[in-house]
Task: structure prediction
Amino acid sequence: MTELTNEEMWMSIGMGILKIILILIIAGIVIRIGRLAIQNIFRVRNSSPLRVSERRTATLIKLLENVLRYVVYFVVIVMILESLSIEIRALLAGAGIVGLAIGFGAQNLVRDIITGFFIIFEDQFSVGDFIRTGTFEGTVEEIGLRTTKIKSFTGEVHILPNGSIIEVTNFSINNSVAVVDISISYEGDIPKTEKILEELLQELPDKYEDMIKTPEVLGVQMLGASEVVLRIVSEVLPMRHFYISRILRKEVKLRLDQHGIEIPYPRMVMYTRDEGNTEKQNG
Result:
């Protein structure tokens, strides 16, 4: 009972709790100021002659923010342990021995960190890129020292250890190509149709900034069962080929309708056998 009424003990506990709260508050402030400083540094760097691509800038900002959090968290843990009167040197010495023992079991962790370093150093992909690795495909949300986050088209976020990323297809580095096939009937005038399409395609780059240059009509791509297929290609900005393909189909359909050129559609021919006429003819 005397311990519960000991004012010095409660004072020391109260001071320890206050120190911990103060340490956490300062850590939060340091992280916030550090993030603002990192963003401002890259903002100034982007305005200088030695500019870094937006892809790489976003990646480095995310990485440095992660490193900042790890460093601050480590310092916070050490300061909290000191405020609790725990001997840090002895703890670190013991941790070194334990770390050496478990180091052999942490090979995957080391491999993830090394792989993450080379992904960033070699600029294999960056935040905002659309990539495919293994069975996963989507936009890179974050690249850390240990993991990479990929957000799929349907909204799922896949968290992959960097060491598991062996092969990567990056769709965001070079320009994309939109490919559209247009069908016309065999009765249609192919030279006239090609001329109409070429006139239309000359107008589109001024309407759609995603087009790098004027789309081209390559000519007859295939002779189908009931249609002649013409192919149009357009070089566009990275990952804009899906959008431009839809735009091309709409523009082509409207222009062909204006000139009365029919796009074929499946038809069914019904044949009815007249049994009565057949018997009379046989008679």
